[in-house]
Amino acid sequence: MQREFKYIGEKIINHKYQLAKTYSNHIPTISQANLEKRGMDEKEYMSVREELVEFSGEILFKEKDEVYEKVQSWARKVSSLTIEYGISLTESLRIISAYQPIIWDFFQEELELEKISPKTVIETTKKIDRLVDLVVRVFGEVHENHNRQLAATAYSAMEELSVPVVPVAEGLVVIPLVGEIDTNRAELIKEVTLTETSGTDIEQVIFDISGVPILDTMVSNELFNIIQSLKLLGIETSITGIRPSIAQTITSLGIDFSNIHTCATLQQALAKFGLKRVKTP
């Protein structure tokens, strides 16, 4: 059987261009989201498909671990190309699944010519199927990691939008905080606040926490630390929107806000800095 494996493997390699061409001609019939349609040069996409055909031949008579290592490297490279060219994982897997029948048809011709035994065909098919399974697994991992990175980037962008720094007058900004604040968001508030205020002409910062439902120890301490950091930068800070329930929480936690200017509403804080609504006659 080893002799037959070597015979088939070498024949696949010798016919890699023809097999890759047959494969390429079939792909547009099953998917419009392919490398050809997305503008990849023919020489490039033919090259990567010829490599896959060559691996299918090598797996029959060369050391499995050696071939698998090359297949994994190839799959990472090509799956990255599908991401670059905007081809989804679903479409990528559909295209990969079209490869096996091309090889099976090639075996069928050899079988009809009685050059290989049916048992050899079955074992050959198993070897190539496992190789394709490896390609599918790597494609899935690469696309999953890419989607995870996109989600993390989107979440980070959303978090940054959740800490708006709003200039309301020369040297004065308001930072309205809305929603629950966990450890990560508290760190983000600190980072955004210090980044946006240091090295600028900002003299006063107002934190409006009227939209924060709970102010626990962690959040209170983090806010206190931010205010102390701003103080070292020469920036005056006020806190507005402290509801009675939050005031009780702060008191029960023993956090000292006595040296921090607070106001019941943002309007009161703005009035402190000389910003009042002018009534029109």
Write the H/E string, N to C. HHHHHHHEEHEHEHEH
Describe the global form: rod-shaped
The radius of gyration over CA amounts to 32 Å
Give the oligomeric state: single chain
Please list the strands of the largest sheet in the order they lie side by side: 1-2-3-4-5
Mean pLDDT: 85
Please tally the helical runs, counting DSSP H or I stretches of 4 or more residues: 11
Record field, number of beta strands: 5
Q: How would a crystallographer describe the biggest sheet? A: 5 strands, mixed
Structural class category: alpha/beta
How far from one another are the termini?
101 Å
Percentage of residues in helical conformation: 55-70%
In words, what does this structure look like?
It contains eleven helices and five strands. Helix 1 runs antiparallel to helix 3 and helix 3 packs antiparallel against helix 4. It is of the alpha/beta class and 281 residues long. The relative contact order is 0.08. The chain is rod-shaped. Strands 1-2-3-4-5 form a five-stranded mixed β-sheet.
